[in-house]
Design brief:
By secondary structure, the protein is mainly α. The chain has 2 domains: 51 residues, Arc Repressor Mutant, subunit A, CATH 1.10.10; 149 residues, Orthogonal Bundle (Tetracycline Repressor, domain 2), CATH 1.10.357.10. The chain starts with 5 loop residues before the first helix and ends with a helix.
Length: 207
Amino acid sequence: MPKGSPELTEARREEIINACEKLYRTKSFKEITLKDIGNATSFTRTSIYNYFATKEEIFLALLQREYELWIDSLKRTMEQVEVMTKDGFSSMLAHSLEERAQLLKIMSMNHYDMETGSRPEHLASFKAAYGGSIRAVTSCLNKYFPDMTASEKQNFIYTFFPFMFGIYPYTYVTDKQRAAMEEAGVNYVFMSIYEITYRCVKKLLGD
């Protein structure tokens, strides 16, 4: 690819995001540094600054990509399935998030840190993807539940999206957290991403 071409720029951005994603599988957000990410790419660490100014911007780009993949999944469903029951829709939406555990994991972090540490253009790009996910879910409601009122759809959106931020911490726990719950005598029922999402959507649809 020619130096400075849009293709090269995009390829390097993706390589940086992929390196961050790989590190995030075994390290926490706080543990990962720009140096770690740079060492996991094929070009010099200082070149990262041509694409991202902070670690927060890289994580925000990763979160944006996860939202975009989720949107694509919802759009494919709408293209392929014409009719859904409340139960079928609840199951579909739950499965769509079950496939995006990375999305939920990053969402459970402090968004203010990521957004505050990102430049306006990066933040605007992310917000476009976030807004697109809201529109995609709204389009699903319009298609499969045409009798829902505008108020009911709004209530669904403004309940479901905040709910998403808490899915990962409730479904993925460390041995240390589990032991602490047991020692504290907390009778907590652990559920999967699918189970907790399915139940929430069913309730929001009034089923």
